[in-house]
Write a structure and sequence with these properties.
The chain contains 11 helices and 16 strands. The chain has 2 domains: 182 residues, Quinone Oxidoreductase, Chain A, domain 1, CATH 3.90.180.10; 145 residues, 3-Layer(aba) Sandwich (Rossmann fold). The longest helix has 14 residues. 25% of the residues lie in helices and 26% in strands. The mean pLDDT is 94. Helix 7 links the parallel strand 12 and strand 13. Helix 3 crosses helix 4.
Length: 366
């Protein structure tokens, strides 16, 4: 009997989604069929829906996904090498990579020359390849991980984007123990970076945002200091906030991690680094105004500036262990604040746009 899938197909900016039932084609070697149990609405999904990122009509969006194995074509192992069986609760890398191209062999699988990204895949490709659907087809070359038993689906669903990217950002700043870390942007990504940095022995984290509502959660994280920035005037590279001087005794922060993507915030943060400090840029995934960089300042202050886009599979492994460690905490409970059935996908998107919750999830099985 041919299996079927119900999927929310994106009709284009301003046109929402249509629910469709489609036949599932047979799996190819090394592939896995998954029943989607939860898919979070990520900020990048909202950018696509708003038309800020090109996307073919009828793409199945959604990439922060957890689910249960339904079937495999041949023996397919998880990242640890253990064969998958029906019923396994899993998540997986946001993309399938070939493992043998120029970038894969240089430990940059997220930049694979043959990359297929879940939730962004060509709708004409054998699918479904996104999370706003009852099922998702995992291609060969996908890094698959079993979920820790202690994690609920809603606790685990941010793992393969938000949490894994947070882990990668902190990894790039290692060794982070004893350091003062500035995080710019207090959404789910910024909060997770703050919590993970402290989990890895950062001495303190200053979490900055222009939205006071977003900073409220920072007060629930021990060692996290909220910093409200003024959107109209704001601090600048030459006028460092008093709290940074107080915490660092006037030296500046050891590490600044930007997830806001705001050029003004990045420019200011570079001036708030100590000599020998490091800036890691994560949020600048869309074109934004350029900022001035004085090579002499970078050299004389011995600054390091790095960019991060997505993550490696081992970051997802660490992310799941971290989520297991903080299961039941205020951060864990707050990351996904509301859930909707697939039939209410437009309501889910509206709720995500409202920013009332850090994350909103779609539950296709509801």
């Amino acid at each position: 009997m041919t299996r079927q899938c119900t999927a929310a197909l994106f009709e284009g900016p301003g046109h929402g989604f249509s629910l469709n039932t489609m036949d599932l084609s047979p799996l190819d070697a090394g592939e896995v069929l998954v029943e989607v149990t939860a898919c979070a609405v990520c900020g990048s999904d909202l950018h696509t829906i708003a038309g800020r990122r090109p996307c073919p009509q009828h793409t199945i969006l959604g990439h922060e996904i957890v689910g249960k194995v339904v079937d495999t074509q041949g023996t397919v192992a998880d990242w640890s090498g253990t064969p998958l069986v029906p019923g396994d609760r899993i998540t997986w890398s946001i993309a399938a990579s070939c493992g043998s191209c120029f970038y894969c062999t240089r430990d940059l699988p997220q930049k694979c020359e043959h990359l297929t990204k879940y939730g962004h895949a060509d709708p004409t490709q054998n699918g479904p390849l996104g999370g706003f659907a009852s099922h998702c087809r995992l291609l060969a070359g996908t890094a698959i991980f079993r979920l820790p038993d202690e994690l609920s689906d809603l606790e685990a669903v941010p793992a393969n984007c938000c949490t894994a990217t947070s882990v990668a950002a902190v990894r790039m700043a290692e060794p982070i123990g004893g350091n003062v870390v500035l995080v710019l942007g207090a959404g789910s990504l910024g909060l997770t970076i703050a919590e993970f940095a402290l989990h890895n022995s950062a001495s303190s984290v200053i979490l900055a945002d222009i939205n006071p509502h977003r900073l409220e959660q920072a007060s629930t994280i021990a060692g996290c200091i909220p910093l409200l920035l003024d959107a109209s005037t704001g601090e600048t590279a030459t006028h460092r906030p008093e709290v940074i001087d107080d915490v660092t005794k006037g030296h500046g922060v050891d590490v600044a991690i930007d997830v806001s993507g705001a050029s003004s915030a990045i420019e200011a943060a570079l001036g708030w680094l100590r000599i020998g400090g490091q800036a890691i840029l994560v949020g600048s995934v869309f074109e934004s105004p350029p900022i001035p960089l004085d090579p002499q300042v970078i050299v004389r202050r011995m600054l390091q500036i790095s960019g991060l886009h997505n993550y490696r599979p081992d970051d997802l492994q660490t992310a799941l262990a971290f989520l297991g460690d903080i299961s039941g905490s205020a951060t864990s409970r707050s990351l996904v604040g509301a859930s909707f059935p697939l039939s209410d996908i437009d309501d889910a998107i509206e709720a995500a746009h409202s920013q009332t919750h850090l994350r909103v999830a779609v539950i296709p099985t509801a």
